[in-house]
Amino acid sequence: MPKIKIVPAILSPNFKTINKDLKEIEPYSDLLQVDIMDNIFVPNKTPQAEQLKSLDTKIPLDIHLMVKEPSHNYIMSFINANPELKINNITVHYEACSNIEKTLKFIKKNNIKAGVAINPKTPLEKIKNILDKADIVLIMTVEPGFSGQGFIKEALSKATELRRLKPDMDIEVDGGINDDTAALAAKAGANMFVANSYIFKAKDKAKAIKKLRAAVE
Predict the structure, then answer these.
(1) Mean pLDDT over residues 2-19, rounded?
(2) For residue range 142-186, what is the model confidence (pLDDT) as tens digits?
(3) Phi and psi for 140 in degrees, rounded to 5?
(4) Domains of the chain, start order
(5) Which among 96, 94, 103 has a CA at the least distance from the CA of 72?
(6) How many of the other CB atoms lie within 10 Å of CB of 204?
(7) How many other CB atoms sit within 10 Å of the CB of residue 160?
(8) What are the residue numbers of the active site?
(9) Can you spell out the DSSP letters for 38-77?
(10) What number is the average pLDDT over the span 26-44?
(11) Residue 43 gets which letter from DSSP?
(12) pTM of the entire structure?
């Protein structure tokens, strides 16, 4: 089983306070997910690569592109946006890429881990032929687009099957994650836990992360 990773997520952050918030969670976070939406693939829009210029953090980034047909130039705009930041991985959606294998290959060519995300209704079967091309599989446990939705427990069966197929793979869950749902996801086989509201709406963000970690370790 790969290392447990707690991944706070930012979605259209308040740029006046975000770096203060990041300093608060930095010692307790394994990665920081930056959610990017285009109002085409999902019904919401966020700032794009330019938002990385405002971030000041040592937490490696997990860039989640909820974007229709992300081009190589578009992906490079994130890689080049802020040389001070470390990008751990860029994750793209199976449902949003006509040639997912080519996109994953391009990301890895830039010495960045490549992730493939699947929506709750997408069966694992759809990506079995590209599992060897991906470093991370992100299993969405809500429909992508908005924070604060209810957790779709049925999606966890994909984590269980994937863990059986790929014992050493990073399996990430995103959507409706709190200490209770994270515990269910860990039991199902996930090792990476993305949380937005649970962490950033907490009075004590560091305490929320510690509670989340305790629930899954």
Answers:
(1) 92
(2) 998 776 678 999 999 999 999 999 999 999 999 999 999 999 999
(3) -75, 130
(4) 5-216 (3.20.20.70)
(5) 103
(6) 10
(7) 15
(8) 35, 174
(9) BSSSSS-B---GGGGGG---SSPEEEEEE-SS--HHHHHH
(10) 96
(11) S
(12) 0.96
